[in-house]
């Protein structure tokens, strides 16, 4: 705030031009995305991508996409600074592992559902055979139905908790 007041006559440089120690032109490509009050934002991007590459990448994009491009470059650069070996690939591969694990759990749960439905169908058809022999008791048909739904819920919960 105080700095802006002092430099009111001259244009105060954006974070990029300040770091590169150059004059911040009126049409500076960095200025809209790297404000002077966020110096670290450009420092990491410059360290990882290099200012001239960032400049070139932004120039090649239409203006409405530059903000998103800067956000993703800042994310990638920060990840690379935090983790010099894997960068944002570290996050991607850990999420990929989570997807693999969850897909395995989902496949197991779906197999359990199929298994239970088969058991339910088997018990219902055996009931139907019995009811052919006896007087058809409709209460007998509903009892195993609700029971199997309860056991399915319990199995589902135990899967997610582990
Ligand atoms: Zn600038």
From TrEMBL:
Record protein name field: LOB domain-containing protein
Domain LOB, chain residue ranges per copy: 12-113
UniProt xrefs under PROSITE patterns: LOB
Family: Belongs to the LOB domain-containing protein family.
Membrane-spanning ranges: none
PANTHER family per UniProt: LOB DOMAIN-CONTAINING PROTEIN 3, LOB DOMAIN-CONTAINING PROTEIN 4-RELATED
Pfam families, per database record: LOB
